[in-house]
Fold this sequence. Notes:
With 424 residues, this protein is mainly β. It has 2 domains: 1-224 and 373-424, no CATH class; 226-366. It contains 2 helices and 31 strands. The protein has helices at 30-34, 140-143; strands at residues 2-11, 17-24, 26-27, 64-68, 87-91, 102-105, 111-113, 116-123, 130-138, 153-154, 174-178, 181-188, 193-201, 215-224, 231-235, 240-248, 252-261, 266-269, 275-278, 288-292, 295-300, 303-307, 313-318, 323-330, 333-339, 345-350, 356-359, 379-383, 388-392, 399-409, 413-422. Strands 1, 2, 3, 4, 5, 6, 7, 8, 9, 30 and 31 form an 11-stranded mixed sheet that branches. The chain is elongated, with a radius of gyration of 27 Å. The protein starts with a strand and ends with a strand. Mean pLDDT is 80; it is low at 40-52, 154-172 and 359-372.
Amino acid sequence: MQGKTTFILTDKDTGRVVDKREEKNMATDFIKDVFNMPRFALIGGNLNTGISKMLPMYNYLLHGLILFDCNIPEKKDDYIINGRYNMIATAGDVYSGTSTTRGTFNQNLSGEIENGYRFVWDFSPERAVGTIRCASMTSSQMGNQGGVIANALDLSNNSASKALAIPSGVSTNYMMYRNKCYYYYNLTNSSKTVNIYRYSMADPDSIGINSTRSLKLEETYSLPLPYVANFTFPNTSEGRFYVSHLSLGSGVISITSGYVDLDSKEFVQVTPTTISVPVKGVSSYSMKTAIYNNQIYIFHNSNIYVVEYDGTLVKAIPINIISMSAFAIKDNRLLAAGSASSGNYYIALLGGDEIIYLPNVSAFSNYDITEHEDVKYPYIVQRNDSYLYINLRTDYMATINNLSEPLEKTDRHALQVQYEITDG
């Protein structure tokens, strides 16, 4: 990404141009990083709204301007403002208010150019008064703040502005990331058919300023199931979607299980028939199941039962969780997440000689378990007592344009900033 910025200072009474200069900008790593998003930003339900905020970039990601009174170090990987630099004014969308620290978007002069976009913002004489030493492109949300740090944009599954989403018309329940593709699957026909959708993610370097999509549907297929599936488990290490049927009787759980092999595109049943597992008591809490290292793990009534495919009970593991939320795999360990009687959330690491409890872990949500430490700027993780949110920092600098000479803007001058940004 490259471009130039033109500053035009005019006398407010005569309209005469008193200063005009053209400056080149440096693109930071923001665009590269924003499209290398955490893959679990896509996990969960309801991913059917399209990319409403991210593309094309000029609608949101680059639709803001910040004017600083200081020079900013030109470091590509250091683009979060984080309150470090003093802002004279900002500009984002069209604005007709009275704030003296906010400009307005010029719709008539802005628009697409070859391989890019031309942004034009206007500041009337009483606005943006000061010595301008640097300009940066930012989000429209940041530009609309008038010099105040903007709140993070929620990219969680509950947000209307998701990081990515598959095209409308495909109702998706689950997702897996494998071989640089996103695999979605859902159950239809009374849960006796599994539908697979494979999407490829565009190389971040190939996404242009005016691009409108970054996910491409590569293939879709459906497989009939020999039983009604009511539990699913994506095993990312094996590349398999496990689908199972569990039913709870008096002191016994019946289970039938199999998986969709993403490589062969075939369904394989792993239990020869329906097997029965004796359990302790009857709990009103919902059951959960996972298949890991060719064994079936079943959570019920604060126990995890490890069962062979032929129904042999290997062991029952008492666990300090009364309400199970999810199984997941991380670092070749099976994780079980849920809440204890104290109300605290726990993640228990299974699959080893010892169960390790991680109390009140921030990398937990009602939707899935995430690799919290893998979330890098411009993404951050925030949570409340019940939910995990993957948010996008909006106080970023997509470009840094240190002026060769300071620009003095007084209340006798109007200022127009023309920002042309192109691919390359």
